[in-house]
Design goal:
367 residues, mainly beta, six-stranded antiparallel sheet, single chain, four-stranded antiparallel sheet, disordered N terminus
Amino acid sequence: MKLSTPRFVAALLIGCAAFSSAHASPAPRERLLMDFGWRFHLGDEWGIAHNLAKAGTGYGPAGTAFSDVSWRQVDLPHDWVVELPFDRNADAAHGFKPVGPAYPQNDIGWYRKTFELTAADEGRRLWLEFDGVFRDCTIFVNGWAVGHHEGGYNSFRYDISDVANYGGRNVVAVRVDASQFEGWFYEGAGIYRHVWLVKTAPVAIAPDGVFVYSAFPNNVPEGPAELHLETRVANAGPGAADATVTWEIFSPTGASVARAEQATSLDAGEKVDLNETANIDAPELWSPESPRLYKLVTTVSSGDETVDRVETTFGVKTVGFDANRGFLLNGRPYVIKGTCNHQDHAGVGAALPDALQYFRIAQLKKM
């Protein structure tokens, strides 16, 4: 999980103000926190709630007309297993909690959330991102099944642009099935990490489409560092488009230290990978003792308009392994120390708030 100190406060403010500026011009890219105001129900009265005879449509809580006013209101992250009573007959490795193959009454939960979109959002690409759901889940938006995901530990996203209701109310429903274990330890159940709504222009950086790394001759951290800049641009618009990608690197103090640019053209529906290099003279090296971070700002313009902008933090360093000297960080032996630590935490199960993540990292650094 990527942790950045201002993230929680900034995300909270964005989430609260996400839909308050209905008449403002859309930003090139918006990433809105969707953690608040969900409804939750533990139970499986509706089965899969997916009408296989009418492809993609849902019924019961998966539909838009369903009333969830009697459901409990929760904010994310949420883990329903930590709330269950202990059961001496339950699996000891999973915390003596009554969940799994022997407890079907506790294995499936439903989440629902409504949100508004402005008419100005029409024409943009909308992505619904889940940082983690345990375990097997089906996502419905406005009564349409937009995706099914298996796997409790990795993030996933779905493009909901074609099923969104612009200028009105939208409904997200998530059916979560935790009947099968993946590990031999406490795993919890539910939407236990953050959810985001990402809005971009039709021509934009593809999801996870920025990669940057540094390199030195012979992997010796001396002299200038060569930065390798990679960006994938996608065109989800109906016609061909031109795009120019600009990379600008800022030092840990905020000064601009390097810049590169490349132009391309994309057909409708096409994705293009662009690669460039740039040099940083006398870079400040990253280490756990001196965690100096550079920032890469990747901008995409089309015509006379800036259509996307993504910031990526990174450290300049070298790593290597030597049979005699062990692990090398920045050319010097470095002893790696850590703990055997699962993702859950006492009292909250798998649904850790960001503040607990910072606390745990701080304790690890103090050790």
